[in-house]
């Protein structure tokens, strides 16, 4: 037998050729399977959604979109969006790898949202609240002038209406394409949070993965109760930047929610399945305390 025939025969023995005419029902649509970022196992999108996007293999909390976050927290059918007409513009006519206006258009198309935050009024266990949810799909949920404006208006609406506010964060920080206008949002949102606190009204923050930069350095960490999801990365500068600056290796678990609880920066790490009940309980305590004349 010629050596070429021998190799050909060996390959036919080792491998089974897949049939080309598979039934149509066996085809898997794009996006039907998701790889867990932590354990790298594959999960079926349907099962993942039913499990609140928590990996059944390792417990990793995958990101939620702003609409998913709102559905998790708000009573069914109670959410009414506010300030949806506010959309970002390009005040600096910024051009990086591509024009800022193109980045905005691409983010809007891929996320289905006009900006990186959704705000509105809702009810949680029958209690009226103002709800804010950030969406990392929109340019990393970076805080530009419109994000800051919508967050500020949400605080002001809660203060004027005498309502608690719940804010779920997820952000890479300030939006560099808007320069100083983006950094100004830190002071504006912080001032709005302070006025809400002065009115003795509750504010609960839920920090999700990741929450960084100017969002962490402003309204995200000014709440009466600060919760976080398991494994959420929270900080100002990222660990790579810190290591390059101090020229030292950071400890394992640095900037994770579990580490920040130990160091007193946040109050509690809460599994997503328990989050709604936990927030409702804290709201009950805080509202009762505020009604009795204490400081929230």
Description:
The protein is built from ten helices and nine strands. With 296 residues, the protein is α/β, with parallel strands linked by helices. The longest helix has 20 residues. The protein folds into two domains: 38 residues, no CATH class; 229 residues, 2-enoyl-CoA Hydratase, Chain A, domain 1 (Alpha-Beta Complex), CATH 3.90.226. It is globular, with a radius of gyration of 23 Å. Helices cover 38% and strands 16% of the residues. The strands form two sheets. A seven-stranded mixed sheet has the order 3-4-5-6-7-8-9, with helices on both faces. Strands 1-2 form a two-stranded antiparallel sheet.
- Structural class label: alpha/beta
Radius of gyration: 23 Å
CATH architecture of the largest domain: Alpha-Beta Complex
Number of domains: 2
CATH superfamily of the largest domain: 2-enoyl-CoA Hydratase, Chain A, domain 1
Q: Trace the largest sheet across and list its strands.
A: 3-4-5-6-7-8-9
Q: Roughly what percent helix?
A: 25-40%
Note the main sheet: 7 strands, mixed
Low-confidence stretches: 13-29
* Silhouette: globular
Distance between the termini: 88 Å
For the secondary structure, the number of strands is 9
How confident is the prediction overall: mean pLDDT? 89
CATH topology of the largest domain: 2-enoyl-CoA Hydratase, Chain A, domain 1
């Amino acid at each position: 037998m010629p050596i070429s025939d021998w190799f050909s025969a060996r390959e036919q023995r080792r491998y089974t050729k897949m049939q080309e005419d598979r039934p149509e029902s066996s085809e898997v649509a794009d996006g039907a399977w998701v790889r867990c970022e932590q354990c790298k196992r594959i999960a079926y999108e349907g099962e993942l959604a039913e499990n609140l996007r928590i990996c059944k293999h390792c417990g990793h909390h995958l990101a939620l979109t702003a609409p998913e976050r709102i559905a998790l927290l708000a009573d069914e059918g109670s959410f009414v969006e506010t300030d949806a007409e506010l959309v970002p513009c390009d005040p600096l006519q910024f051009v990086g790898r591509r024009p800022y206006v193109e980045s905005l258009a691409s983010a809007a198309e891929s996320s289905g949202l006009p900006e990186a935050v959704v705000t509105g009024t809702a009810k949680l266990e029958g209690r009226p609240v103002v709800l804010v949810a950030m969406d990392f799909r929109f340019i990393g949920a970076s805080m530009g002038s419109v994000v800051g404006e919508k967050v500020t208006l949400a605080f002001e609406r809660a203060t004027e209406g005498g309502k608690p506010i719940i804010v779920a964060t997820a952000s890479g920080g300030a939006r560099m394409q808007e320069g100083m206008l983006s950094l100004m949002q830190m002071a504006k949102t912080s001032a709005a949070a302070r006025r809400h606190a002065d009115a003795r009204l509750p504010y609960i923050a839920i920090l999700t993965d990741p929450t960084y930069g100017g969002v962490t350095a402003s309204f995200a960490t000014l709440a009466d109760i600060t919760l976080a999801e398991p494994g959420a990365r929270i900080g100002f500068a990222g660990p790579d930047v810190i290591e390059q600056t101090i020229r030292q290796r950071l400890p394992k678990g640095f900037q994770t929610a579990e580490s920040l609880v130990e160091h007193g920066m946040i109050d509690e790490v809460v599994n997503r399945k328990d989050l709604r009940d936990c927030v409702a309980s804290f709201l009950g305590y805080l509202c009762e305390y505020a009604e009795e004349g204490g400081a929230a």
